[in-house]
Design goal:
Jelly Rolls, 11 strands, mainly beta, about 15% helix, 6-stranded antiparallel β-sheet, single chain, globular
Length: about 200
Amino acid sequence: MALSTTHSRPLMLTTIVVWVLLCLLSVTAALPTAPNINTRTCTNYLINPSFESGAIEPWLPIVESAWSTRGVFANPFTHQGTHYYYAHATSTVESTLTLSQSGLNAPVGATVDCYAWVAGKRGEGVTRIEVILDGVSCGASQFNVGEDGWKKVGGKVKVIGGVPETGSTLAIVVTSKSAGDEGWEVWVDDVGVVSC
């Protein structure tokens, strides 16, 4: 008994589809895998950038006006890790905190991501933050009344170099023109002068 052509077409069509799928699978399996292009490494030129040593060194804190508390502390409020730098100004008039680190070996001419994670708290007025590398602003921001939480302050800049043969200098400058009787607070963590 001969098969009719109408009954053999679905069987033939199924065979062709299976054959095409098998061909595609064998070609896909034979293709080489793409290399991982995200293997670049990044360098943070700062020492103790997140204060995780529990000490302030090699950072240099400079203050103007009255401050009741300053230093490296451990607390769950960190941006990441276990430690951060904290300062509480009791001054109701202008006050400034500068955290700086010198001797950074960032290559002159390289573009780096220059930043600090900062949090602030105050009852009135404004806290202004600026991150500076070798006299060039990496970026600035501010905290107003009622703001809390961490902000990344900074951006990408080209390294121009500091004093010859001593490396670059990073400064985080935090200022307040005035404050209420309770003063104002600032937290600094996870600072970077990073190139990839």
